[in-house]
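User: I'm putting together a teaching handout on how multi-component assemblies are represented. Below are the sequence lines for each component of a complex, exactly as they appear in our records. Could you produce the 3D structure of the whole assembly as structure tokens, so the students can see both representations side by side? Please keep the chain order the same as the input.
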Amino acid sequence: DTGVSQDPRHKITKRGQNVTFRCDPISEHNRLYWYRQTLGQGPEFLTYFQNEAQLEKSRLLSDRFSAERPKGSFSTLEIQRTEQGDSAMYLCASNQGQYNEKLFFGSGTQLSVL
Amino acid sequence: GENVEQHPSTLSVQEGDSAVIKCTYSDSASNYFPWYKQELGKRPQLIIDIRSNVGEKKDQRIAVTLNKTAKHFSLHITETQPEDSAVYFCAAPSKETSGSRLTFGEGTQLTVNP
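Assistant: Of course. Below is the structure of the complete assembly, with chains in the same order as your input.
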């Protein structure tokens, strides 16, 4: 499968716990994005990487959220001290960069915070 | 930042009819306007996009028109089929990131009745 893959597909956690999600982009894509989507809404930008550099974070993003892409390949998104309001679908996407903006999305990780 | 508004939020048509979804954006420097389709429980997928140097683009039954003066763009689906039923999202980039960050509209639930 050469698409964007995310793991896990579903995560149920208790409030206050830490969770980590993984995204494997399409191999030749140098840009990787994280979006969050809640029911009935469009995807909301969280952050993006070009290779291993994190170039932008949403100003709305809490400092409980951190993302890494250490070798410019896969990425992880960690949420510390989860809150019920963090419940959402976390989508990863990748593309080839500035001259090919088409985003390829993964299937997402559905997070439920109890 | 970019503000994208999408209308209508729901749209129901009879099979064979046309469907039109409209979006407005706020950033006059935006130069790339994609449309994504998201079927229930699946990932968003690009169906068509347009750049600011053209006013219209067509791909079989799908077309997108752009009015840069008025800062709005529209998705047109002709001869609708039941498999067109999905949520459709428009998006526009933020000039601050040269198109790297897409702001999505809130989506339009299209239902095509057989």
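A couple of points students might notice: The interface with chain B takes residues 31, 40-45, 48, 50, 55-56, 91, 98, 101-103, 105-108 of chain A (CB under 8 Å). The mean pLDDT of chain A is 93.
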